[in-house]
Structures are given as C-alpha cells and as structure tokens.
Design a protein that fits this description.
Blueprint (H helix, E strand, L loop, with lengths): L1 H9 L4 E2 L6 E2 L1 H27 L5 E7 L4 H15 L3 E7 L2 H9 L5 E6 L6 E15 L10 E2 L9 E2 L6 H10 L5 H4 L9 H10 L3 E5 L8 H4 L2 E4 L3 E11 L5 H14 L2 H4 L4 E3 L5
Parallel strand pairs: 3-4, 3-5, 7-10, 8-9, 11-12
Antiparallel strand pairs: 1-2, 5-11, 6-9, 6-10, 6-11
C-alpha cells in the first residue's frame, strides 16, 4: 500500500506487477538508486554528529572475501564489540566482485578484500601484506626442498579455488602457467573454501597454495608439510575498501586498529614481498 501511495504521489509506476517476481520499471530503478543515495547521506549525517560527540555508534555493514573471513574475523569480533557496544556489525562473505557491486549501490559500508582494485570510485586502506605458502601431501617430492620458488610448483598437482575468487587468479599469476591448467589436469574440483583445499591435499595427493592466516589452524604434523617461498615472498595486499563518498571514518579507523592489533609481529613486519594481483 505504501508503494502504491508513493507511485500515486510521484505520478509514475515504480514496479511492473505483470511479471513474477515483480521487478522495478526503468524509472523505478532510477528512483531506487536515488533512494539508496539519500539513505547513505542520512547515515553520513549521523556519522558527522557522532564524530562531534566523540561517540562510536551505528551500524557497519561489512563484506569480507571467504579466504580472509574465517581466519581474521574470529580474532577481532569479540574485542571490537566489547570496546564499542553501540556499534552493530553486520557481516557477509562475498567475492570481491560482489563486494564492489554492493558498495556502489549502498548495500555495504566497507569491504575487506585483496587489493589493488584500480577502481576510482573506491578508497583503499591497506592493512597488511599476507604471504603465501605451499602446502603438500606427504608423498609429494616438493617436500625434499627446504624452501621453494614459483618454478617448483607443478601445475598438474595443484588444487585451486574455483573461478570468481581473486586468490585463484593470484596463484595462477604466481605460477605463470594459466594456459596450461586445462591441458594438464585430468581432474578438477571446484571449491570456494581454503579448508576444502587443505582436506583435498591431506586425503588425496598434490599441493595447494595457502594464505598465511590459514596456517594457524594446522597441526604440528601438517606444518611439517608447509614450504615457504624464497625472497621476494609472494603475498597479497589486504585492505579495507569503501565508496569514495563514505563518511563513517571513525568506525573504519577503529576497525583498522582492531585488525592490526590482532596480527602477529611477523605479519606486521615490512619484508620484501612480491604483491600478486588477482581481481579481474
């Protein structure tokens, strides 16, 4: 009834009710987009007021890529919510592409993703550089080496995330063997989970490339099957991204501090790394 009343007031049809499910009309899409901008500006007004009062409150809608979320979020959620009880965190796991899309239409306030993205509509706040390491099955000959370089990776043995995950592209860029992938692999398993990659290596054979934070869950025996890269160590840049018009700076600053405080000294250290790009 409220939508019908709004349509009467505006003198236009916002939704095409002849279709199932109901979809916005051409003008309806424009009105919805503008309404999102108005709501975002209302949030920004609240942010200005709260900043003046030096009080953190409100809602922060965060999108996090699946290769970061399970390893970073448990370290910060309890601490953050204890320090800032008036801030409500709403968190979803999405791919980088989904996070960027939702930021642009105001469905998310910020994202935690691998950068750089080279998108002028977004602001990037680098947090840390996360090294990659190789994880191998017990029988894999790569374990004879104490450390490795990219040339030691056999693409036919490699377990990968499925299409759409930036880490997949980063790993293939590291190997420089993207074109060989389909030719050499007789079996391909598609997954969006780093944990599944670990299990496939453990229960079958082969190798995978893991981000540093995911190594914290490995047992002592599993850690014996991790091999580090020689310098320059391949790594990914992890950043908080926001729309360029986003104004909840004080909450983002608090989130940034909480994340940095959760990292080990080794992760915080500035070492020689080769930053891999993977978002396409």
């Amino acid at each position: 009834m409220q939508i019908q009343k709004l349509e009467d007031n505006l003198g236009v049809i916002l939704f095409d009710r002849s279709k199932q499910p109901v979809v916005p009309t051409e003008i309806g899409v424009q009105v919805i987009d503008q309404a999102r901008l108005v709501l975002a500006e209302a949030d920004n007004l609240n942010e200005i007021i709260h900043s003046f009062k030096k009080e953190l409150s409100g809602t922060l809608k965060i999108g996090v890529i699946p290769t970061v979320a399970p390893y970073l979020l448990p370290k910060i959620i309890l601490s953050f919510t204890s320090k800032y009880p008036k801030v409500q965190l709403l968190i979803w796991e999405f791919t980088t592409e989904q996070i960027v899309q939702k930021l642009k239409v105001g469905l998310l306030d910020c994202g935690i993703v691998s950068t750089p993205l080279d998108d002028k509509t977004l602001n990037e706040l680098p947090l840390f550089y996360e090294p990659f390491a190789l994880y191998a099955s017990k029988d894999n000959p790569v374990l004879k080496r104490k450390s490795i370089v990219a040339e030691n990776i056999e693409i036919k043995d490699l377990w990968l995330l499925n299409e759409g995950h930036c880490m997949r592209n980063q790993v293939l860029n590291l190997c420089s063997k993207k074109a060989e992938l389909n030719k050499l692999k007789l079996f391909e398993y598609n997954t969006g989970s780093v944990e599944t990659l670990k299990r496939m290596v453990d229960l079958n054979s082969g190798i995978t490339i893991l981000p540093e934070l995911s190594l914290s869950d490995l047992s002592k025996e599993q850690l014996k099957r991790v091999r580090r890269f020689k310098d320059p160590v391949p790594a990914r840049e992890i950043s908080i991204i926001t729309h360029r018009n986003f104004l909840k700076r004080s909450i983002i600053t608090a989130l940034e501090k909480e994340i940095l405080d959760s990292l080990t000294d080794e992760m915080k250290a500035s070492t020689k790394k080769e930053i891999l790009e993977g978002f396409m």
